[in-house]
Amino acid sequence: MGKKWRYGVILDAGSSGTRLHIYRWSDPRKEIAGASKDELNSLPRLVTKKEWTKKIRPGVSTFADKPASVGPDHLQTLIDHAIKYIPEDDIEDTPFFLMATAGMRLLPKVQQTALAREICSYVRKHTDFYLPDCSTHIQVIPGETEGLYGWLASNYLLGGFDHPDQHNHGKGHHTYGFLDMGGASAQIAFAPNTTEAVKHANDLKLLRLRALNGTPREYKVFTATWLGFGVNQAREAYVKALLDAYATPNNEEIPDPCMPKGLRTNVHGETVEKHDSKHLTLLGTGNFDECLRKTYPLLGKDAPCEDEPCLLNGQHVPAIDFDINHFIGVSEYWHTTHGVFGTGGDKAYDFATYQRKVKDFCSQDWYAIESKVGTRRSNKAKDAQEACFKASWLINVLHEGIGIPRLGLEQSSHSTVNSTQGALEGSKNKGLSDAFQPVDKIDGIEVSWTLGKMLLYSAGQIPPNTKDDSLPVGFGSNVPGVPPDFQHAGSSWRSSKDAGDHDDDWSDTAEEFMDKARSKSASGFLAFILVLLLISYVFRRRDRRMRLFGAVGALVRRTRRPGSPRRRGSRVFSEFTSKFFSRQGPSYERVMEEGAAEQFELGGGDSEDAESSDSSDSVRFGQSSGLTMLKPSLDVPDPNPSGLALDRNGLAVRTESRERLGPAPQMLNAGRRSRAGSPTRLKSPFVPAFQGD
């Protein structure tokens, strides 16, 4: 029987740390057999648990100068955690992925390659995870790919794929946009409206999934990334701009409006007690409006735009229709709005309310804030020091960069979305009818781009509905068929490591799988009926059994052509039936001669003699079965030259003569060559020839 569950392990190697994710889903072949109509029209159901996630610091990129240490000093902790939760029997079938993002993208190509090679080598050597191709399973993924995976994960959890009718945003649109911001980069991914999709078709990615019933799902998505626009990289750029503007030989303390009033740090963000004449110091002034003005130039809105329209830093992005494009934001979008400022729960993002909270917090004296958040080295204190800058950067990116309407200040037409009242109320509970909503989890599952990657992998294991509709699962340029740059899901319905363990052929289509599932019950019922008939036959009176047996035998003889040879299968069946259903006891075609057993000794079936023997049947028996076989000993005299033997009643009967059982000893080796003079084996008349499979 095949395995019920499939597992996947993926490591998100970010700039600040590496996070392990474990996902599980039902084997498609098992799922298809018992799925309802609604389930067959849905994508695979992935499951994860809180304890299946683990994050360690720092990031993989910190091992750039010592790649040999990344395995034992970094990965092994996560590997041990994964092995603890995945059944041992499933390890070798569990794909292992490590996909690095912005932190690794900042490294030179040679260091990226060295780290990836070392990681793959370590995992292959120290684990049994499924890792057939290093370039596919261990890689630095582009920001566009990261955004696309995030878009997949978001819409999967929100239900935009499986139940589009419940997420109708108007104009035939039912998916959500995705925004992500980490420490080093930011991403955007969304499906433009129909007009923009046609106008910018060459800028879109064609994404292909497959539902459980094998039908394809295709989406056209725009995705873009901004390297250096993550909060940590943006902060470094901001500090550099301050130094360029204010640093002079005589100015050792620079005002920083993006820090709480009275907070002192060095240029690396480390707090200092007081003015240090030996090092340049940043002094917080708590002026949030000024902070917004200082961070705005970092958006690069004045950068040349070669392909209109553009958003941040001259990056082309199709026009966003906020009537239908509703975005969710993860990572820093969530932490910056729900951390220090605590907007609470899943309430909709309100720009006016959020900005007021930020202003109130940042204008406070740092010592008052510090008394509430604990020691200066605690995580809460660190978050409080950075909160004002992060809030200003997020507000600028959202509203000045991407153009999200300022809810509470600007009137948006999104409230007129053409949707059913029930679906609208359901989305309002999660704030998803608004143009932007920061989220961390949906239905208890963390929104991570890693889920999108594993969804793609699991969908790739589903066979297509028909053999004529077998385009691969994955994504690439927006052209028909399979474009040259197509990124495959990493899995295939045509092959599986344990395909031999399953009753069904993995190369069958989904339609054939369902047909087999339906036929299994019919086959089981037929076998049950045959067993009942056999039992009823055995317990019938002997004379009635014999009449029925005779009738069947006559029918068989009539169906055989006159003079045609009797097939071995028919002979075996006849012997079997005669033993169990005839009036007489077991019959023997030949009776072993008295003393004949002395002519044979036990010999290994895989001996050297078997390899040199010309008796193919005897060789096949010995080699195929691995059992011992009877070996003739030719130097024993015939104890019964007359060919007579005694039957069970003590009467003398005529048997086959020795001459008929085999050639004369002197003729055994005529015309043959035997290895080392070993005797040639005879086919024993008492051991039926083994029939190979």
Automatic annotation (TrEMBL):
Transmembrane keyword on record: yes
PROSITE patterns reported for this sequence: GDA1_CD39_NTPASE (PS01238)
Cleavable signal peptide: none
Region (Disordered): 486-507, 599-693
Sequence ranges of Low complexity compositional bias: 615-626
TM region positions: 522-539
Pfam families the UniProt entry points to: GDA1_CD39
Record-linked Gene3D superfamilies: 3.30.420.40, Exopolyphosphatase. Domain 2 (3.30.420.150)
Keywords annotated in UniProt: Hydrolase, Membrane, Transmembrane, Transmembrane helix
InterPro entries xrefs: GDA1_CD39_NTPase (IPR000407)
UniProt record similarity statement: Belongs to the GDA1/CD39 NTPase family.
PANTHER family according to UniProt: ADENOSINE/GUANOSINE DIPHOSPHATASE, NUCLEOSIDE-DIPHOSPHATASE MIG-23
Protein name: Golgi apyrase
